[in-house]
Specification:
single chain; alpha/beta; Rossmann fold; seven-stranded parallel beta sheet; 29% helix
C-alpha cells in the first residue's frame, strides 16, 4: 500500500493500539510497524515513519526521521521530550493528558483514606492477634487544596466534595471549577497552602515548577497538614521536605513520584518517619493501553484528515 501513512508503534504492548486502529476503520489508510522499547528504529523505519507512538526518544534519533511529523507520547508529562536538545521544531508533540482520569483520582482518594483510616494498623494488629480499638479520622469537613486543577484535579475535586470535603485550589486561568469552593491563580498559592489540611500536587514539571514546594512554601502549610505528590517528582525540594517532616513543621507526605525512579534504596525518603513512599501507582490501570489507544486513534484520524490534533503540547508552557 504505497500511498498509506507509515506509523511506528514503539511500545512493548502494541496490541491495543493495533486493535483500536482496526476498530476505527483506519487500517486501510496506514501501514503500521511495531518495535519493543528495548529496540531502536531501523534506518528504514526512521526514513519512512510519518507518525510515531512512543514513551520517549534518545537524543539524535528524531532528526534522523525526516518524514516524522507527529509523535504521540504515552505519558501525560512530557518533560523528557522537551528536554531533548534536538527536538525538531516541525514536530507536533501530543501527550496522554486525561487518560489517567479513571485511575489516578481513585488512588489519590486511597492515599487520603490511608492517612485517616486505621486499616493498615489493623492489619498489623491482626498479625499479632491483638485487639486494638482505633478511631478513624473523618475526611468530611476537612480542606483539600489541589495545586493544578486540570482534568485529574477536577475529578478529584468532584469525588472529595462528595465526601464532604471543602476543596480549594489553584489554576493558571483562575476560572471557577465545579465542586471547588475557591479557585485562585498560582500567585495566591501561599494563601491556599495556609488553609489546607491536605495539599495535593498535580502540577506539570516545567522550569516554573522546579522545586515548587521548597522550604518557603512548606512553611506556609499547617503543622497538621499532609502533602501528597501525584504530579511529578521535580515539584518537590527533597531536602526541604525531609527537614519539614523531621522537624514536625508539617504532619508528613505521601509521595507517588520521584526525581529518580525507581527510588534508590539509599534515598532518605525510605527511612524518614512521616513520609510514605508509593511506587508510582497513581496513573496505572489494568487497561491503560486500551484507554490511551482511544486518544491515539482519535488523533490518528485527525492526522490523516488534516485536522488539528488533540492534547498538543505547548512548548512554551511545557505541557
Amino acid at each position: 500500500m504505497p500511498d498509506s501513512t507509515r506509523v511506528l508503534l514503539w511500545t512493548d504492548a502494541p496490541g491495543p493500539y493495533q486493535a483500536a486502529i482496526a476498530e476505527a476503520g483506519l487500517a486501510e489508510r496506514v501501514t503500521v510497524e511495531a518495535i519493543r522499547r528495548s529496540e531502536r528504529p531501523s534506518p528504514a523505519q526512521c526514513a519512512a515513519a510519518e507518525a510515531m507512538l512512543a514513551w520517549g526518544a534518545p537524543p539524535g534519533l528524531l532528526p534522523a526521521m525526516p518524514r516524522l511529523r507527529w509523535v504521540q507520547a504515552l505519558t501525560a508529562g512530557v518533560e523528557s521530550w522537551l528536554a531533548l536538545p534536538d527536538l525538531p521544531e516541525r514536530l507536533v508533540l501530543t501527550c496522554a493528558r486525561g487518560t489517567h482520569r479513571q485511575s489516578m483520582p481513585e488512588n489519590i482518594l486511597g492515599a487520603l483514606f490511608a492517612l485517616t483510616k486505621p486499616y493498615a494498623e489493623a492489619a498489623e494488629d491482626q498479625k499479632r492477634r491483638q485487639w486494638t480499638r482505633r478511631i478513624a479520622v473523618p475526611l468530611n469537613g476537612q480542606t483539600l487544596a489541589i495545586l493544578g486543577l486540570g482534568a485529574i484535579g477536577q475529578e478529584v475535586a468532584r469525588l472529595a466534595a462528595a465526601l464532604g470535603m471543602r476543596v480549594i485550589g489553584t489554576r493558571r486561568t483562575g476560572q471557577p471549577v465545579a465542586h471547588v469552593a475557591e479557585v485562585h491563580p498560582p500567585e495566591r498559592t501561599n494563601a491556599v497552602l495556609a488553609l489546607a489540611d491536605f495539599v495535593l500536587l498535580l502540577l506539570p514539571a516545567t522550569r516554573a515548577t522546579e522545586s515548587f514546594m521548597d522550604a518557603a512554601r512548606l512553611a506556609h502549610m499547617k503543622p497538621t497538614a499532609w502533602l501528597l505528590n501525584f504530579g511529578r517528582g521535580a515539584l518537590i525540594d527533597d531536602a526541604a521536605l525531609i527537614a519539614a517532616v523531621q522537624q514536625k513543621r508539617i504532619a508528613g507526605a505521601v509521595l507517588d513520584v520521584f526525581r529518580q525512579e525507581p527510588l534508590p534504596p539509599e534515598h532518605p525518603f525510605w527511612s524518614t518517619a512521616g513520609i510514605r513512599v508509593l511506587p508510582h501507582i497513581g496513573g496505572m490501570h489494568p487497561d491503560r493501553d486500551r484507554i490511551v489507544a482511544q486518544l491515539f486513534v482519535d488523533n490518528l484520524r485527525r492526522f490523516l484528515d488534516g485536522e488539528p490534533l488533540s492534547e498538543v503540547v505547548n512548548r512554551a508552557t511545557g505541557y
